[in-house]
Amino acid sequence: MRFLFKTTFLFAFAAALGSARAQDSAQKTPLLPERLGPMERMLWSEHGAMRKIFDFPLTQAGRERELRDRRVMLTLHQLGGFATLAAMAGAVFLGQEVYNGQRDLSQMHKAMAYTTVAGYFTTASLSLLTPPPMVRRGEWSSISTHKLLGAIHFTGMLAMPVLGTLVRHDMVKYGHSDLAPYHQAVGYATLAAFAAAMLVVTF
Amino acid sequence: MKKRTRAHLFLPAIFLAFAAWPAAAKTYEAIQGKSRIVYHLHHPFHHVEGVSREFTCTVALDDDTTHAAIAVKVPVLSFNSGNSNRDSHALEILEAFKYPFVEFASDSVRGHANAFRVFGQLTFHGIKRPVDFPIAYTAAGSLIRVTAEFVVKLSDFKVGRPALLFVRTDDDLKIEIDVVAPGP
């Protein structure tokens, strides 16, 4: 009888323990989010380039290290964002002065524009190359707006150096440029989109 | 042969004893989806609310609090603040791979009627600390509802305060528990 009781008790206890472990196992934290962006899939998915070419194994320890790197990269992305915004505002201000006739400021405008381009693409790469987060759902959030505005200022930043070079070429050759107002408009639009992208993150 | 027959007769009694044991404590299981745990975190730029509806909660409660107990287990991954980037940041800080759950287990429940105070241990970020908070208990139709609200300090659990644009959140984390369970 005692044996029967012990057996029954052990069976019940083991079943309860097994059920709890099964639940824990089912809720085990996944290493990667279900949704990955195109760049993340290329670099950080199970068979991504970082896994195949470099020493970034898809393990718990590996992902913990990646998440620490991600935080550092995103913090630098924020810092780079502030620095780039300052440089971009300076370049736009100086560009407006040159446009208004202060030609002696053109070299300073050019230097500030180069600084902006360097800061911008460094800051952008810190975000684009960052390892994926732990979770990503499909909701629309302030980060989605930040990325949408990112697409606008990224396009602007691709156009600006080309337009600037063309305007400079025309100015040297003909003393004026029909493209100058477009360069000016794209500059303001890029600055506005960039500042807005930073502002929306705070909401 | 005779002994075996007798043992066979005792089997239903043993199973009845097992079935009656938890029933004596009036144990209720939270209904997932209807129950929720919410955290509130204040940042100078905005207020953050994260909700979990996927947790287990067992409540054993009665007017006689001698056998009363509450146990809660929440996967940190289940909290949704409406911004997965922010949630991911929180999971990084909480080291979700190492500490995937927040757990509470009561030591004692004191009080009477519909107002009780729970004393227990909160395990958060792998650190166990005593907490106590009032709970309200109501029965409506075929359901019972247990609600509670308390504040913990992130620093008490060695959780770094998340930062946005280099500005950190407050140290206080308010937790609201709203458990709906099938009644007796």
How far is the N terminus from the C terminus of chain B?
43 Å
Strand-residue proportion of chain B: over 45%
The tally of strands of chain B reads: 12
Order of helices and strands of chain A: HHHHHHH
Largest sheet of chain A: none
Number of strands of chain A: 0
Mean pLDDT of chain B: 84
Radius of gyration of chain B: 20 Å
Biggest interface, residues from each chain: A-B, 32 and 31 residues
Q: What is the CA-CA span between the terminal residues of chain A?
A: 68 Å
Secondary-structure element pattern of chain B, one letter each: HEEEEEHEEEEEEE
**Tally of helical segments of chain A:** 7
Task: List the keywords.
heterodimer; A: 203 residues; mainly alpha; 75% helix; disordered N terminus; B: 184 residues; alpha+beta; 10-stranded antiparallel beta sheet; 18% helix; 50% strand
Q: Could you characterize what this model shows?
A:
The complex is a heterodimer of chains A (203) and B (184). Chain A is built from 7 helices and no strands. The N terminus of chain A is likely disordered. The longest helix of chain A has 40 residues. Chain A is mainly α and 203 residues long. Helix content of chain B is 18%, strand content 50%. Chain B is elongated, with a radius of gyration of 20 Å. The N terminus of chain B is likely disordered. With 184 residues, chain B is α+β, with helices and mostly antiparallel strands. Chain B is built from 2 helices and 12 strands. At the A-B interface, helix 1 and helix 4 of A face helix 1 and helix 2 of B.
